[in-house]
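## tool: complex_structure
## caller: assistant
## args:
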Amino acid sequence: MGTAMSLDEDLITTSQQVSVESKSPRELAIARFQRDRLAKWALFVIVFYLVVAIFAPLICSLLGISPYALDGKALNDFGLPKGSFGGISGAHWLGVEPGTGRDILARLIYGARISMLVGFLATLVTTAIGIIVGVVSGYKRGMVDAVIGRITDLTLAFPSLLLMIALTRPIIQRLESFGIPEGNTSRIVYIILILGVFGWVYVARIVRGQTLSLREREFVEAARASGAGTWRIVFKELMPNLWAPVIVTVTLAIPGYVATESTLSFLGLGMLPPTASWGAMLGDSVRYYRADPTYLFIPGIALIVLVLAFNVVGDAVRDALDPKGDRQNIA
Amino acid sequence: MFLFVVRRLFFAVLLLLAVSVVTYLLFSALPVDPAALTCGKNCKPDIIAANRIRLGYDKSIVEQYWLFLKGIFVGRDYGMGQAAFSCPAPSFGYSFAQHECVTTLIGRTFPVTAYLSIGAFIMWMIIGVGSGAIAALNKGKWQDRLANAFTAVGVSLPTFYVGLLVLFSVVIWLGILPFPDYVSPLEDPIKFLNAMILPWLTLAILSAASYTRLTRNGMLEAMNEDFVRLGVAKGLSRSVVLRKYVMRAAMVPIVTIAGLDFASLLGGAIITESVFSLPGMGKLAIRSVVESDLPVLVGTTLVSAVFIVLANVIVDIMYGVLDPRVRVK
Amino acid sequence: MKMRRIGVAVGFVLVASTLTASCGGGYDNTINILTNGEQIAHLDPQRNYTGDDLAFAGSTIQRSLTTYKFQAGDAGSEITGDLATDTGTSSNGGKVWAFTLKDGLKYEDGSVITCADVAYGVSRSFATDVITDGPSYAMTYLDVKGEYPGPYKATAAQQAAYDKAVTCDGNTITFNLKSTVADFNYTTTLLTFSPVPKAKDTGEKYDMHPISSGPYKIESYEVGKALVLVRNDQWDIATDTERKAYADKIVYHFGLEESAMDERLIADSGQDKTAVTAGILPESLKTVFEGDKALAKRAVNYYDPFVGYTNLNVKNLSCLDVRKAIYLALDREALRKAGGGSYTGDFADGFIKPLMKIDYKKPTQLAGLNEDGSPNVEAAKAAMAAAETKCPEVAAHAKDGLKFYYPDTEIWKKALAIWIDSMGKAGIKIKPEAVGDPAQYWPTVMNPETDYDIVRGGWAPDWANASTVIPELFTTGGGFNLTRNASDPDYKTFETKVNDARNTLDRTAQGVKWQELNQFVVDRLWALPGTFTRMQSMWGSKIENSFQWGPFGAFCYGNLKVQLEKK
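## result:
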């Protein structure tokens, strides 16, 4: 990263900022990030969620709860949780699921695994494809850009949600015939695959637009003039300057894909029972807005907290990485 | 510039043709037998076979596609004897699940979707760009934090969750509005607004979020651009700089996304239309998936593709207008 | 504490309704039917075959030869002449049935309803390529020689064969049957026996705009939006003893969000004061029946004609001990709670509901089955152990995983979780197979290609005779047999007994035979009895005549009445 920023750093030193010149950009970025106390808290929240997701079985067995155990005794004759606030009790800290009496906390913890898995993997796939395609397309221009552009157009032209639903069964069947284990594994693979097929386009569009502007900029022209090869320019000059928009996209994408998982679940493409996912919980809980409002809010709040954390961290990272961030604002 | 537009339009037509081929192949390869779904309890192999012929699924895919394509230009006839009927051009086929020509179905549902999209678009652009600008101008202050939180919540919560929360809180908990019950604006404008305000709001909350963010970040970027600083250095007033340079530069990514978002809305807002019981194209489309109603599925997919492709052309042209540095040859 | 929170929520609704009411939300002499369905499955009389739709179309736009009386309680199960002057006369030992049409019967366009129109209507039900989904009783019962493909494709000779089976003499229509059908005049309550004028028949498209013979006619019909019925001024009340047609207009609202429907009826504002809806979601039950007394008065909780059960694929699960193990291990009480507790219904003891007084006798239950619906894990384990020695292959299959096809809805996801949990305790594994859309569930599992082990089932008799239950569900010729039981060693015996029962003329003696056959199936567990279901419905505060019509388990839509404001 140090050399990556060198040309931009040169530009900066021509202006007012002299005091921080002695530190490397990476150190600078870390220092900037550490100054943001909110961001540190947010990072802690994300790590906490991740740890909980990874060690879900351990945590649940320590707490003595299970996401699958039915508890009919916790339900009244209507199948609704006994007691107030959705059946919150010593045995069930966040209450029980209406209809089955399963422990909501345990399902939330286990559900985090599926949701985070889908969110992270889908983001990884779409962002990786999107960056590569976008940079190549924007930098190469000409025929390459035209061909990629047509593929992009074709992908964008399809109503993605509709296709995701329509293609579920045939593609999952195909995947299973390729030896991917049936059940939830093939469903997760399908969801990530189909989100990848449709999702890269948005990243690619943004990256391409940025690349188009960047390649006209002085430092890229300078690199070209000094005989730098395409790959060098792409990786050393363009990529570093794409971090900001990409990070914004990623921080929005992860929670966005977690939400997509729940929408697919709402439309009947979710995990198979008895597996828990936040999407399934959100979809189920909205039906109890009147009968069991506690249940309605618990998965929603869990999701909102995660998303807010990602946003705060995303912003902080973006501000920290952006070497121009500290400069005086014109407004 | 003119040549560029013509070329883009030409490619657009080619693209739509490609979309229609891919759609047709994709859906014809689905392992559902539409004929088997027509007879329910009484299904016997000979009935299924007879229905397959009646629906035209006995022919090869190429021939089916050709008939479909021809139908768009000259219309199409179905059935025989007393049970015969036809769908006039432009025909996208006939829905045996709904007993109507697909074109009629699309024509009937499209206005609803158009009203939904236009209203929501106006709302989210005002909210999104407005709050984004406020956040950018007050970077780091509470306005910025608030806009940020709004973005996060809006972008992350699934549509059905927000939609139902909006519906329940406004209609049931607050009791401000009656339950949305769609009527055409030509019939009863007040009832129409009553029915549309919540879906508009839902889509606006969800979509404005990403615009808030894009606007904020775009403006912050632009404020640090050399040409903007040059403008300030030249002594131009703050408002002129903001309007002429900052907003303009920030608008580039927004126009891209906005055009595409709007176009894909026109193809049907599946979840919103379902939650608020709006008889629009999204609902028509999802129903066709549910019922394996291939003609409707292909028809709605194509129509929404038309909007997206057109929007793409417009966005490309706007790119050139907004950012003079990216004028494509 | 819980109760108060809900009380508060209802308080808000009451405020809301007074607000909207004071904003000028009046109501008209219009019945509003709310549904989340996108359309009525079929309005074409020969294709209509669901309880609710038959009650709707049969009480508003279509008349048949005979009809159930439009009355509450047991009286609603009695039949009377509709288009026909009486309930028909049989001769030749119940093999020939004749009905005479009333005078002064007209369609909405003013043309006269003739005997030929009824004969033509019935003939349409043979054209199963166009006229899909309808009941097949006409094809089963009528003595048409040779193949008859329906009126659209029939050759002159084929049509002549049909015209011999169904003859018209002036106003009298005569049906010649293959064998004795003692209660054929119950069959004729189905709209299969409703008239269709040949000149107005549009085949496939007739479903969207059938010509009315009843007190209402279709003004407009938009799938996904609404069906609007207005008065048919050609209908003469003098020809009709049952239909009262109180309301000026009936509007069927389609495609509504499920939970919003319940809320609209609870809120009871404006036009929703004259709304009705069939079915209340489990999560609304407490609010409706225990939240507010005024609300509970606008709702009903009753036994509908349906029995819910679970089909086992007898071909795959060819071992009775495995089937026993499944039944014994199942936590039926948990399933019932997931569906809304006692509002789901009672535990079924067989496939014939006690409502069918002649045909019902409580069958002896499987030894070890707990009456309170709780699982008997020990007995289930013992049954599995027995299976291990008797039929190791089937037992291994059950341990490896049984494919359970279920509709992918929230309630069924929970039901599957319960199945998985309870089967696990007996060492049986369940592989959930989701069918993404509930509407495709029946077509999917009825497809002979679908390889399932367990699927759900739900059935109501077509009329009050178990001849429309036991043969339909468990013989190979039955329209809803999902048990694949043809290979069972006892099947041949079963079929012989069914044919014997069908041909028994004495109704009481026949009833005893159905009781025995019910026991026969319960003993062999081709399917597992589930619940004798209950149904809940709600209506607006200005609706009268909201009784549930016994044979259909639905409102008697055509006779719903709006309580008009006193001026």
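## assistant note: Chain A has a mean pLDDT of 79. The CA atoms of residues 30 and 320 of chain A lie 7 Å apart. Handing back to user.
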